Amino acid sequence: MVETLHRTNQIAPAIIDMSAGKNPTLNKGIDNSHIIEMPEGSRRKSRMSVDGARIIAALSPRITVTFHNVSKVINVPAKMIDPSSKERYIQRTLLDKVSGQIHPGQIVALMGPSGSGKTTLLNTLAGRALNGVTGDIWFNKQRHEKGMKRKLAYVLQQDLFFESLTVKQQLTYTALLRLSNHLSKTDKIARVEQIIDQLRIRKCANTPIMLISGGEKKRVNIGTELLSNPSVIFLDEPTSGLDSTSAVALIDVLRELSNQGKTIITSIHQPSSQMFQSFDQLILLADGKTIFMGKPSDALPYFATMGYQSPPQYNPADYVMDLVNQDVNVRENLKEAYLRNRITVNENKSISQFKDQNPPEGRKYLTAEPSGNESDLTNPDNVNLISGKDSNRWPIGFFSQMLILFSRSFRLTGKTQFTFLNFVQALSLAVISGLCWLQMDFVESTIPDRSSFIFFIMTFWPFQTLMMGILSFPFERGVIEKERASGSYRLSAYFIGKSLAEAPLKLVLPTLFLIIAYWMARINNNFAIFLAIVVFQLLSILVAESFGLFLGATLRNLHHAITAATVSLISLMLIGGFFIQHLPHWLGVWAKWLSFFKYAYSACLRLQFMGPQIYRCVDGSYVDICKNNINGTFTGDDALRFFDSGIDIQYNFLVLFGMFIVFRIGAYFSLRFIKNNTGRT
Ligand SMILES: Nc1ncnc2c1ncn2[C@@H]1O[C@H](COP(=O)(O)OP(=O)(O)OP(=O)(O)O)[C@@H](O)[C@H]1O
């Protein structure tokens, strides 16, 4: 087994690498599957089949990242920079001809003042936000392609998760989604166990993420990205917000990973002296330009050649940051000095041959930049990075994605829907409503009250669900975008899975409410009519939710979405004719038919007066037939004439159903095509 792994020349998965020096024990497990046992030292035995271990290992060839003259220029709306500007756009250079080479086994630190371009460089190297980017980036000898996504992990600065999931649930869902179906489910779970051990998060494995510490959260964030055993790991300020002990522990984890042959590049703020020295290479940026690239221990001697001497006993990282944070002139000096001093790989070879020819003094402290020639590119593992199985854009098929995302949404929605407070709210409102309309007699005077009961139930729950629908995507978007950026699943699989999982759960409380309130109020004794009213109530809730999802997905600013919802809800109620019987003709002709409240309300009004129920006349105020016959009776049809509504129940159902579909599809397309308008790189 060990031989096989060596022959494939891939980085072994954590379980095997962790055993470096101690041979992993090969076991024949239950069910005839070959199992590797974790070596001593891990708190729990993780078991993965030999085939599984081989597949995981093959996911991670050693990769050298080479970038040459990478620049990024964007057009910023001129008014954002200068409100009095007459121009439409101003060009802004975020990266200016940055070059470098990072080898497997190295941890490279990216430092620089805030706004110097660290995140932009990380994004660019990781193949994200490539608009306005020029220059060359190679992974071994290949350029970035979509199929390469899973070889590159990106640990974002924010730890974005569904925080009500436990650590293990988070990792398991990710493993099921991101690991290909060539691995069995058992192996995927075994991989989760490995990562839990490797990142030392066993103690919080069953704790909801919202309750774990910042350092643990960061490790879960890294663990999530490590599940697919990537070759290159980009990290954006992984230590920010951590205390020094957690930060050191995190860097130790990164060192373990680099020892496994992974290529690591991380931006970092204010590392301790010890941490600073532990990096293999330092790239220092200022205003999008390189001002130093070399060993961290060479940074101070390099700046000293220009007369910038660090005081003794000073943390070199702090000194370097103080230097680049000084006034513009110092930064300009440093930028020019780097241009004078920098060398390419080729020049470096000739310099070493002619050491005496007096090159600029700082040169010897710098790491050579690649020149952009083919000869600069190294390919330690001569494998095609997007060949064979990996060339599939998605790790698992559409239906598997949908089922997993369905299960996750079901779990998450269940947790938010079925809270004690939500039950208290639904039940108490049901009882209060029931008491208000308690046991109405079937008499003429209750006709307005019966209609207002229908109005109440057809507005209260749709209002509430619409507002929840608006919040749905804004809260999930960050996590979804992160997961999609690493090529985990199709948006359509997420959308369908979420819709199928959430809809039934969101209907439970309204149904409970209606069962109580309806029978307390005694709307119509016919059970079939009750069921039909329930169907319309639930359909109107689904339409409202779809409308909310549509607004939330289209207007990416939450305040805008809530304002739009309030305006449209009130308008739809006004033009639905609930408050005004006689709308101006030009408005009434078409506008009232836009109101989805109108369809559900009209249909339920019709339903409630259907059936053989006989009503008693009182004073003839509402029903014509009672005008001169106060002791007589009338039917539901006579009552309906009071509302002047020519209603076709099936038609109303179809229109509502159509609205449900149209708003859902609209929400999907908005989610798919409306990009983040913050324009962040
Ligand atoms: N879409 C954009 N429009 C305008 N400016 C942008 C855009 N994206 C990035 N920038 C600017 O580019 C510069 C580099 O940003 P970047 O986030 O890469 O810096 P950074 O070094 O990572 O900063 P920090 O350490 O604060 O995270 C900043 O000045 C930022 O304001």
Report low-confidence residues grouped into runs of 5 or more: 1-43, 352-356, 677-681
Instruction: Kindly report how far apart the N and C termini lie.
Output: 45 Å
Record field, number of beta strands: 15
Largest sheet: 6 strands, mixed
Task: Name the beta content range.
Answer: 5-15%
Number of helices: 24
Gyration radius from CA atoms, angstroms: 33 Å
Order of strands in the sheet with most strands: 9-10-11-6-12-13
Average pLDDT score: 83
Helix-residue proportion: 40-55%
Which small-molecule species are bound to the chains here? Answer: adenosine-5'-triphosphate
Molecular shape: elongated
Give an account of the 3D structure.
With 681 residues, the chain is an alpha/beta fold. The chain has 2 domains: 104-130 and 148-307 and 319-324 and 333-340, P-loop containing nucleotide triphosphate hydrolases (Rossmann fold), CATH 3.40.50; 398-673, no CATH class. 50% of the residues lie in helices and 12% in strands. It has 24 helices and 15 strands. It has a 6-stranded mixed sheet, sandwiched between helices. Strands 5-4-7-8 form a 4-stranded antiparallel sheet. The protein has a 3-stranded antiparallel sheet with strand order 1-2-3. Strand 10 (232-235), helix 9 (244-259) and strand 11 form a beta-alpha-beta unit. Helix 19 (527-554) packs parallel to helix 24 and helix 22 (596-608) packs antiparallel against helix 24 (649-673). It binds adenosine-5'-triphosphate. The site of adenosine-5'-triphosphate (ATP) has 15 residues, from strand 4, strand 5 and helix 5. Adenosine-5'-triphosphate is lined by residues 74, 76, 92, 94, 112, 114-120, 679-681. Residues 350-380 are annotated as: Disordered. The chain crosses the membrane at residues 420-440, 452-475, 503-521, 527-551, 558-580, 649-671. Keywords: ATP-binding, Membrane, Nucleotide-binding, Transmembrane, Transmembrane helix, Transport. Pfam families: ABC2_membrane, ABC2_membrane_7, ABC_tran. Residues 65-312 form the ABC transporter domain.
